[in-house]
Write a structure and sequence with these properties.
Helices cover 53% and strands 10% of the residues. With 259 residues, it is α/β, with parallel strands linked by helices. The protein folds into two domains: 149 residues, 3-Layer(aba) Sandwich (Rossmann fold); 94 residues, ProC C-terminal domain-like (ProC C-terminal domain-like fold). Bound molecules: NADP nicotinamide-adenine-dinucleotide phosphate (NAP). The site of NADP nicotinamide-adenine-dinucleotide phosphate has 22 residues, from helix 3.
């Protein structure tokens, strides 16, 4: 996730975005390291100074160690942005001793600029900080501001973890196609392109998923036969609801347990 952000910032630096990028990382992916150096980024600086913005994109259990190594980057004017799942504003503030914080939740399509990020701001951020944080998160895709930190558990369940549900749908489609007699490789290609194409159509037309669904569903036709199953009493709606409740509850527990 940090790599996806850094790649986007490297592009912004090349376009003359006025950014100087310092990247702290124990083991650089060589391609990313080269791309960052080509954009004038400083990799693992030897004499770090406080920066305008400090971004944490490590696993939550690496946060305390990363916070120690990042301490020299943190000054009284530094805005902290975290993309760590489950680490609350309170947890960030306790370790870093600041309220100038933005807690964000991106998702993996952000690697290709097709993600979505929601964030919540700490008590110490200014309107200028918010604008800056949104600009910094923009390479990953659109950005949404949440007013209440509790909403981040639902965000985590829906968009943070959501790409996995869509991949599961592609897997389930392919598995069903194979069981109904299609060769495995053909089943996988049909399922993959169907999920990707439907997603792209939704984005490019700007139509609601409901409108697009109705447009391909003739009464009494084949799509209708499948939708009658999928929208039944124990169909996709209640199943997804249960999945989101479980994921949001897990996010709450992670937040309570240590952060
Ligand atoms: N992946 C997702 O879908 C997703 C979505 C939303 C939010 N997030 C959040 O994004 C964060 C990163 O997730 P990820 O999947 O990108 O994890 P990741 O692939 O493990 O990336 C973490 C990176 O940080 C490096 N690192 C570890 N300790 C460090 C330290 N002390 N100082 C500097 N760098 C250090 C790691 O290096 P090593 O590999 O050498 O340890 C690794 O390259 C997590 O908090 C996750 O909750 C992820």
């Amino acid at each position: 996730m940090g790599g996806a952000l850094a790649r986007g910032w490297a592009e912004a630096v090349k376009l003359g975005g006025g950014l100087t990028l310092h990247v702290l990382e124990p083991s650089f992916d060589p391609a990313l390291g080269e791309a960052l150096e080509a954009a004038g980024a400083v990799l693992n600086p030897e004499a770090p100074q406080p920066t305008d913005v400090l971004v944490f994109a490590v696993k939550p259990n690496q946060f305390t160690a990363a916070a120690q190594s990042a301490q020299p980057f943190l000054g009284p004017e530094t805005l902290v942005v975290s993309v760590m799942a489950g680490v609350t504003l309170h947890g960030l503030g306790r370790v870093l001793n600041t309220t100038r914080l933005v807690r964000a939740m991106p998702n993996t399509p952000g690697q290709i600029g097709q993600g979505v990020t929601a964030y919540v701001a700490g008590a110490g951020v200014s309107e200028e900080d918010l604008l800056l944080a949104e600009q910094l998160l923009a390479p990953l895709g659109p950005v949404e501001r949440m007013d209440i930190e509790r909403q981040m558990d639902v965000v985590t369940a829906v968009s943070g973890s959501g790409p996995a549900y869509v991949f599961l749908l592609a897997e389930a489609l392919a598995a069903a196609a194979e069981l109904e007699g299609l060769p495995k490789d053909v089943a996988e290609r049909l399922a993959r392109q169907t999920v990707a194409g439907a997603g792209a159509l939704m984005l490019q037309t700007g139509q609601t998923p409901g409108a697009l669904r109705k447009a391909v569903t003739s009464p009494g036709g084949t799509t209708q036969a499948a939708l009658d199953v999928l929208t039944g009493m124990d169909g996709l709606g209640p199943l997804v609801r249960r999945a989101i409740i479980a994921a949001a509850e897990r996010s709450r527990t992670l937040g309570r347990d240590g952060h």
